[in-house]
Design goal:
With 714 residues, the protein is α/β, with parallel strands linked by helices. It has four domains: 50 residues, Cytochrome C Oxidase, Chain J, CATH 4.10.91.20; 247 residues, Beta Barrel (Catalase HpII,  Chain A, domain 1), CATH 2.40.180.10; 83 residues, Catalase, four-helical domain (Hemocyanin, N-terminal domain, Up-down Bundle), CATH 1.20.1370; 144 residues, Class I glutamine amidotransferase (GATase) domain (Rossmann fold), CATH 3.40.50.880. Helix content is 27%, strand content 16%. Helix 3 packs across helix 12. It starts with a strand and ends in a 5-residue tail after the last helix. About 1% of the residues have low confidence. It binds CIS-heme D hydroxychlorin gamma-spirolactone 17R, 18S.
């Protein structure tokens, strides 16, 4: 019998605890076996027939008496709860945090002081603007919300993958979100900011320009949720035993490094696999390669805050890591998928106000507003003040108080006293271990004002832009041109270019040229002149932090019948050694028979496995296979896309005709196309794949690159 390579994932048939029988009317019933579970109503009454409702005669009317039917439909009718107003599309997983360095000098929080302590956590990743059913690779901020079930109660760190935000005051949040989401008259476009309302709002809200630079960068089209950073955004406060405060910003860094896809890929991935990110995370965890992050802090005091160029309470600003290095204090691993999506991912309720003793707030006007919003929204979404009783939200720490009753009360106090103070028994406050708010001294006039210290809207936007590599800057320009080209009103396009002029002259010029504007619009009026002395910060660039490793990435191997078995085996071995994964793609899903008679199992038929789903591809084809695939549009797209997306492509000599037919001329063959003749070539190929992309290819072949790389006009 022929040998078989490949493993059959997901095909484990579940043991069947029922038998299917045909009823007297010809209908099928699934009857519980000897030790099988019996289907019941919500009341626990066993059900005899789950296929037909009760009716008068075989063709007669339904009877109200059928309580099983009515209960089943009633429950179904009420299955949906309101989706989140923002961050509706999300994916949650479990994990744990381990502290490696104590912050005992600045906080009493046990989770930040007990080194070696493992704290269970739940993380929900999300996009912001799209509805629950939108695609994963929308250009959008990724929510990165963490719930730590600490010994002292739940701590929620509800962050994003971008360290700054669009607005400075929470009162503008509904406007921002209304503008970003689908337009109210037509109900589209969803899950994208490429429309008039969003850019109109932005053009009238210059404080958003720093964030705009981030969202137009590759940060908003991540390759994987395993490859994004996380930020608490606001300045929070740590509080020590004496009540002294230290400012803190939280940052978490993925061990796999940062990586993004290209916009053209994102658009195609959304069609090929709208669940790309959640599937990727699910696969990584269930295959035993759970993603890990390091949790870090930037700590500072009032002296630093007073001397810093910007206001530390302004959430449109960050503190460059070069100015305050990130101190790594622990790691977290996300290693368990949910048992039930609704129960956990959907019902999890994060609240920024969930802090534990030793961790507190600052007056950041965005954070203050969030503290109101998150609790409020949970009541709407989950329908009861008892949402904390739902297992995913329930603290692992003991809970004892006199709050009672309400819808769906699951945790009900025992005993006579339900008030405090009382002369009976029950929980009492603890001045020693209880939460103490930071005793800030506050004075001031009651007023609706914006502090002048929040007025510089462009300097850090510029700092972000100049910190990027050429290719990253080009992508920002491309994204702006793409988005603004979808905006119908020319005056809005021009207004944005006016803001860009305050950030970087060349960027403004390239975008204006990309939009075909006849003249460069006037620079927007700035309350504060852009500073040009802020130095570039490498930590702001994805490319400058590259890990140069293929670990955690995926190779797509396109194989035909008669392909070289030795090369396939060498590739599979090399992928394993690189701690990466692979998928075999064949013309038919049944797999391919290699030149030594081995049957290679396939994960994808070529139509279902376009090259956009992989970080790099290898074409291991026989001459016949290449000849056949050269006539196939999908196979040609596979190669053309991989090339167009600057990916590394390994190929056996017989695959050359397909490369040619995919439109890659001999003179365009660059060092990113690597011939696979034997093991050393395979090793060289895998090493190259660790670089993720051959960016030089994009800079030399892309239509917009020439304009972008040209020197700026004076
Ligand atoms: Fe949120 N945000 N937000 N947000 N946010 C919500 O809460 C809100 C902001 C973030 O996976 C909502 O439970 C206001 C910044 C994440 O369940 C809502 C303001 C940051 C999630 C809400 C902000 C975030 C939310 C909707 C301006 C990054 C998903 C559903 C003051 C630091 C949590 C919900 C999850 C969700 C309000 C700004 C992150 C409506 C008023 C800044 C990751 O309460």
């Amino acid at each position: 019998m022929a040998k078989t390579i490949g493993k059959d994932e997901g095909a484990t048939a579940q043991a069947r605890s029922f038998e299917t029988v045909i009823g007297s009317g010809g209908e099928t019933h699934q009857i519980a076996g000897a030790d099988g579970e019996v289907l019941t109503t919500q009341q626990g009454v066993p059900v005899a027939d789950d296929q037909n409702h009760l009716k008068v005669g075989e063709r007669g009317p339904a009877l109200l008496e059928d309580f099983h039917f009515r209960e089943k439909i009633f429950h179904f009718d009420h299955e949906r709860i309101p989706e989140r107003v923002v961050h509706a599309r999300g994916f949650g997983v479990h994990g744990s945090f381990t502290l490696t360095e104590s912050l005992g000098d600045v906080t009493t929080a046990k989770i930040l002081t007990e080194v070696g302590e493992k704290t269970p956590m739940f993380v929900r990743f999300s996009t912001v603007a799209g509805n629950k059913g939108s695609a994963d690779l929308a250009r959008d901020v990724r929510g990165f919300a963490m719930k730590f079930y600490t010994k002292e109660g739940n701590w929620d760190l509800v962050g994003n993958n971008i360290p700054v935000f669009f607005i400075q005051d929470a009162i503008k949040f509904p406007d921002l979100i209304h503008a970003a989401k689908q337009e109210p008259d037509r109900g589209f476009p969803q899950a994208q900011t490429a429309h008039d309302n969003f850019w109109d709002f932005i053009s009238l809200t210059p404080e958003s320009m720093h964030m705009v630079m981030w969202i137009m960068s590759d940060r908003t089209i991540p390759r994987s949720l395993r490859m994004i950073e996380g930020f608490g955004v606001h300045t929070f406060r740590l509080i020590d035993a004496k009540g002294k405060g230290t400012y803190v910003k939280f940052i978490w860094k993925p061990k796999l490094g940062l990586q993004s896809v290209l916009w053209n890929e994102a658009v195609k991935i959304n069609g090929a696999d709208p669940d790309f990110h959640r599937r990727d995370l699910w696969d990584a965890i269930t295959m035993g390669t759970p993603p890990e992050w390091e949790l870090g802090v930037q700590l500072f005091d009032d002296d630093f805050a007073d001397a810093f160029d910007f206001d530390v309470l302004d959430a449109t600003k960050l503190i460059p890591e070069e100015q305050i290095p990130v101190r790594i204090i622990g790691t977290f691993v996300l290693d368990r998928v949910v048992d039930n999506f609704f129960a956990e991912t959907e019902q999890v309720a994060f609240c920024t106000q969930n802090v534990v003793p030793g961790i507190g707030f600052t007056n950041d006007p965005l954070l203050q507003g969030r503290n109101f919003s998150y609790l409020d929204t949970q009541l709407k979404r989950l329908g009861s003040p008892n949402f904390t009783h739902i297992p995913i939200n329930a603290p692992h720490a003991p809970v004892a108080n006199f709050q009672q009753d309400g819808h769906m009360a699951m945790r009900n106090p025992k005993g006579r006293a339900n008030y405090e103070p009382n002369s009976w028994d029950g929980p009492r406050e603890s001045p020693t271990t209880g939460y103490k708010h930071f005793a800030a001294e506050e004075t001031g006039r009651k007023a609706q004002v914006r502090s002048p210290s929040f007025a510089d809207h462009y300097s850090q936007a510029r700092q972000f832009f100049i910190s990027q590599t050429d290719i990253e800057q080009k992508h920002i320009g491309d994204a702006l041109v793409f988005e603004l080209s979808k905006v119908e009103r020319v005056d809005i396009r021009e207004a944005i270019v006016g803001h860009l002029r305050n950030i970087d002259g060349k960027l403004a010029q390239t975008v204006a040229a990309g939009l075909g504007l006849k003249a460069l619009p006037k620079a927007a009026k700035a309350a504060v002149q852009t500073r040009t002395d802020l130095p570039a910060s490498d930590a702001l660039s994805i490319a400058k932090q590259a890990k140069h490793s293929f670990e955690g990435r995926k190779l797509g191997i396109l194989v035909s019948d008669g392909a070289d078995a030795a090369i396939v085996t060498a590739l599979i071995d090399a992928v394993g050694k690189a701690k990466a994964v692979y998928e075999v793609i064949t013309p038919k899903v049944a797999g391919a028979t290699l030149d030594d008679g081995t049957l290679l199992e396939a994960k994808q038929k070529i139509d279902g496995g376009p090259s956009i789903l992989y970080d790099a591809v290898a074409l291991v084809l026989s001459a016949d296979g290449a000849a056949m695939l050269s006539k196939d549009k999908t196979a040609k797209d596979f190669v053309a896309d991989a090339f167009g997306h600057s990916k590394f492509i390994g190929y056996t000599a017989d695959a050359l005709p397909l490369i040619d037919r995919a439109g890659i001329a001999k003179e365009d063959m660059d060092e990113g196309l690597i011939a696979l003749g034997g093991k050393p070539d395979v090793a060289r190929f895998l090493k190259a794949c660790g670089e993720a992309r051959l960016w030089a290819r994009e800079l030399s072949t892309d239509l917009d690159a020439a304009a972008f790389l040209a020197p700026a006009d004076a």
